[in-house]
Every structure is written in structure tokens, then in C-alpha cells.
Amino acid sequence: MKIKILLGLAGISAAFLMSGCGEPRAYGKVDNTPYPTQECRQQLSRGTEIDHSQKIDKIVVYKKKRKLYAYRNGKKIYEFRISLGKNGDKGNKIQAGDYRTPEGSYCIVRKKCDPRLYRSLMISYPNAADKARAKAKGVKTGGYITIHGQPKWNADGHADRYTLAHDWTEGCMAVSNKAMTALWRAVHNGVKIDIHA
What we know:
The chain is of the alpha+beta class. The protein has helices spanning about 1-5, 10-15, 40-45, 130-135, 160-165, 175-185; strands at about 25, 30, 60, 65-70, 75-80, 105-115, 120-125, 145-150, 175, 190-195. The protein has 6 helices and 10 strands, in the order ααββαβββββαβαβαβ. The protein is globular and about 45 Å long. About 35% of the residues are buried.
């Protein structure tokens, strides 16, 4: 397969072009092949996507470390590598289109069966502090910040080593699909998430 051959080449960093939390690109061509979402949506509608024995109550992200930790009753259950917004090292998110990942205290407000990026957990950005900061600067906060999985061309995780070593989202936090599956089963709406620099 062409993708697998190219992944083995030394010029791997030049092979991938990705943009946004919602329009991944591979090898210069948009991958329009969607993830199937019907079963996922049915599970969400019935509330059967959660494994109650695996539920977590808090997520903590450290941007500088590129790490996401999930906790239950103060005990760390999961630790995952993440990718950030393309300007992930340039501080807190200030406005729409700055490609920064926000910092602050939020919660998970929605689960989405995403045909482009596997699955996603939407966070409650912007919070009151984000809105006040943007208003003071006369800019729009932006929104729809999520924790999401990988683009379809990396559904099997063969390129995780590359995608998780580079920041490529518009401000979201990307994890491997394996990590997203674990979070999907463990997270319910209302779970708190603290994002640190």
C-alpha cells in the first residue's frame, strides 16, 4: 500500500499535510473517506457507549508535556500522548483562528461521532474568563475545541508515531484512536478537564 511504503521513508515529515480539527490532509489530497458513525450514534442515543466500571471523573492536560491524564477518585487511570494546535507553544488561546489550545478549567459538554476524526469530546471553551479576555481585546473567542481521534487515513494507528509527535490541529487536542476509544468508554458529560500550560 502506498501510504505504508511512504511512511517508511526518511522524508516522512514532508509527506503529511494536515490542517484543522476537522479537515485532515494526507499526501496533499483530502481524505474524504468517512468513518462509519451509525453504530456510534445508536450507542450514544441509548447511553450504552459508557463502560461504568471504567468511568473517570477528571482529565488533566499539560500542554508543554503533550500529555493527557485521566483520573478516578484521585487515582491516575490513563496517560496519553497528545498533539495540540499548530501554535500550541505560543500560550493560551486568545481568539478564533490563532491555532492555540486553550488553558483553564472546563468540562466535557458533548460527545460526537465524528466522520472525519473518529470521535470527539467537546469541552466547554470558552469559559467566562476566555470571554472576558476576548471582549477586552475586541476579538472573537472561537469555539468547538475538542479532544479527538485521528483522521481516517490513520484509523489503524500506523502513523501515530508521527501524528502524535507534531502539533497540527486548530486548537484541539488529538489522541490516538486507541486512546480515544478508552476515553469514549470512560467519559460522561460533565467530567472536569483542567488544561495547563
